[in-house]
Design a protein that fits this description.
This protein has 1 helix and 8 strands; from the N terminus they run αββββββββ. It is mainly beta.
């Protein structure tokens, strides 16, 4: 039995509505990822991102467990969301200025529990 063209078109439209707009993630947005150690340390990362783009970044290293990621100070120009053991930063479409945010990461590094502070500086491309 063959599906009618109208039925197939309806399925395509429904699938595109459900999935929403495609995210344009910037896979190389963090140029240097200095590892943190969950030992009450502070690490600074620099992000380069185009206006209107997203940066999706995981935080877990292979040898650690992340229990919580909390926003200490949010960005003033873009939007930040904690996603599991990572984050998603969305740059504004019109602004070209620098931005920054700070995260507090808690978990276990091998067997030792602890926290790290991650300060991220956002620079436009």
């Amino acid at each position: 039995m063959r599906a009618s063209p109208v039925l197939l078109a309806g399925v395509v439209v429904a699938a595109s509505v459900i999935s929403g707009p495609a995210a344009h993630a910037s896979p190389l947005c963090i140029k240097e990822r200095t590892p943190f150690a969950l030992s009450q340390d502070t690490v600074r990362w620099t992000m380069s991102i185009e206006p209107g783009a997203d940066c999706i970044q995981g935080l877990r290293w292979s040898y650690m467990q992340i229990f919580n990621v909390a926003v200490v100070s949010g960005p003033s120009r873009g939007q930040l969301a904690v996603v599991g053991s990572g984050f998603r930063y969305s740059a504004e479409n019109t602004t070209r200025g620098a931005d920054r945010f700070t995260l507090l990461i808690s978990g276990k590094n091998r067997h030792d529990p602890g926290t790290s502070t991650l300060e991220v500086e956002v620079n436009p491309q």
